Amino acid sequence: MRTIAVFGGTGGLGSAVVPLLEEKYDVISLGSKGVDITSIAQVRRFFLDHEIDIVINMSGKKHDCFIGELSVGDLGPIKDMLDVNIMGNINILTCCLPYMIQKGWGRVIAISSIFAELNTPKNAIYSASKAFLDRLISVANRENIKYGVTCNTIQLGYWDEGMSSRVEMKYQDAAKAKIGLKRFGNAKELYNTIDFIIENEYVCGTNLRIDGGI
């Protein structure tokens, strides 16, 4: 049985997906209190202590602000967001790839966002962090596919769990109106996508968008 490390596995969407993964895989679910992904020392220690075949990073932070109206109060939340969304993923890749290369097999899946490709007001910095992630993972795949390691991102739209579920209902209704299926995605649909990527080696270096038809 393959072993999966799910970073951000204790969050809203992670908590819904992990039980589905556990039906097929040996899963280690981690929150920020278990391993702080912004600390390369903590991430390195985790991979020294655990033999991991598959890494899924569901960690993410979001801070909304107009780029031309930043205040001093925005700087702390923005730094925290970039530390998680950018440095967290760099730390995970840096620490997990050597072990996967040595084994000749591995899967890295990072959760991105459709906002990486959308020009949405108040999301400039968040969107840029997700666009960075998409390119980081794509290049990591290019470098490591020859060793049997695939790297992909999943660009999420709006979901029943996670960030989407925390906004006011009127904004949720407005978002659903833009979706072809007129509903948010659910944990089972995300699990199916993750399992598809794990099982299909030819799916590699992609930024796979699942958004219900926005």
Automatic annotation (TrEMBL):
<dbReference type="InterPro" id="IPR036291">
    <property type="entry name" value="NAD(P)-bd_dom_sf"/>
</dbReference>
<dbReference type="InterPro" id="IPR002347">
    <property type="entry name" value="SDR_fam"/>
</dbReference>
<protein>
    <submittedName>
        <fullName>Uncharacterized protein</fullName>
    </submittedName>
</protein>
<dbReference type="Pfam" id="PF13561">
    <property type="entry name" value="adh_short_C2"/>
</dbReference>
<comment type="similarity">
    <text>Belongs to the short-chain dehydrogenases/reductases (SDR) family.</text>
</comment>
<dbReference type="InterPro" id="IPR050259">
    <property type="entry name" value="SDR"/>
</dbReference>
